[in-house]
Amino acid sequence: MPAVQRNGRAVPPEKTQESVKESIPSAMTASQGQQRPSPYLLLVYPVLLALGSLWAVISPTAASPPTAPLAPGVTSDLNVPHFHHTNYFAGKRNLVNIYFVKVGWFWTTIAFILLQTTSRPRASIAKKHYIQAGLRYALVTFSWILTTQWCFGPALIDRSFTITGGHCEPHPFNEASLKDAVKLSRVNSGIVCKAYGGNWHGGHDISGHVFILVLSSAFLLYELYIADCHSAHPHVSPQAAAAVAHNMTDEERTAMGGWESETVAKIRIWSRYFLYGVVGLDLWMLMMTAIWFHTWLEKLSGLLIAGSTIWSVFFLGDFLPQWRSIVGGL
Ligand SMILES: CCCCCCCCCCCCCCCC(=O)SCCNC(=O)CCNC(=O)[C@H](O)C(C)(C)COP(=O)(O)OP(=O)(O)OC[C@H]1O[C@@H](n2cnc3c(N)ncnc32)[C@H](O)[C@@H]1OP(=O)(O)O
């Protein structure tokens, strides 16, 4: 049997799958002994929100900018700045807000699809893994739709806004909206109100940002853990995986059950980097939202809806085994 080539070097041909596994450093094959992530990890979110809110109170730079006095008879907070004089992220039109958070479910979906298509669950559980991962995605997406888009009519955040006394009122500097005052008063959705040039004012405004950012980051992190647990190949850090894929022969990569080629390994690694990027931006924007936007209670309500969705999908099965057998998970 001829010697196989590894980066131009000849290596002994008699390596078996077992000997290849043994040659992988133990730190890179840690998945077997991994601890199950605790639901208490979700407490990171209230801590982050509390720190941001505290910073908003005690930091002189986070104080609200001086606002122009309101015109007589105008009660709306219309001078919320699009660009803040002290911090770029305090303005609504910052690029991360426009291109990332405002289309946050798109990025979450892409990160999830990339994770699933580049993970390699063990053959014996592959079908079940994909079905249950799809089901969990459908459940969190349904929660996102009900909360922010449509809940058999207006979304939950719009319903709670109008139930607590909020309404759409004409914008005093927008003549068209002033003419349509009666029509605007019947609008029951924040997006429609703004589209008509009105001002969504007065009620309890559940933070859609806190909701989507918590839901997205927690969902992706727990799915990453599940994908790793179900993986046919050892859990490796992206750097270690690159080194492994680079140094192995083709036979060795196949024997390890997944790192067939350096290109495949790189696609997997970059998919992980992409997921880390989405989660990192989620957490950053959560902190920015905590500092610059909404009241305590509005942030808390966004957090509670996202937190209970995540808990129901990933941890309710601890108490209801039938639920676990349907949605799978941790
Ligand atoms: C091998 C590979 C195969 C691959 C194979 C590929 C297959 C390829 C298939 C692709 C398939 C994709 C399929 C995707 C399918 C989807 O999922 S597409 C869906 C895309 N759409 C989205 O993601 C929309 C997400 N956005 C939302 O849900 C809502 O906008 C949000 C984010 C919840 C926020 O709502 P909101 O009204 O802004 O509410 P809220 O947070 O209370 O904020 C109130 C105000 O404060 C501002 N504010 C609050 N916090 C902040 C802040 N931190 N910074 C700035 N402003 C703030 C807001 O901007 C808002 O201001 P206004 O806009 O009202 O003036």
TrEMBL record:
* Keyword hit for Endoplasmic reticulum: yes
Key words of the record: Endoplasmic reticulum, Hydrolase, Lipid biosynthesis, Lipid metabolism, Membrane, Phospholipid biosynthesis, Phospholipid metabolism, Transmembrane, Transmembrane helix
The superkingdom listed in its UniProt entry is Eukaryota
Bilayer-crossing regions? 40-58, 96-115, 135-157, 206-225, 273-294, 300-320
One GO MF term on file is: coenzyme A diphosphatase activity
What is the residue range of the signal peptide feature? none
- What is the annotated localization of this protein? Endoplasmic reticulum membrane
The protein, known as? Acyl-coenzyme A diphosphatase SCS3
Which species is the source of this protein? Capronia coronata CBS 617.96
Q: Which gene encodes it?
A: SCS3
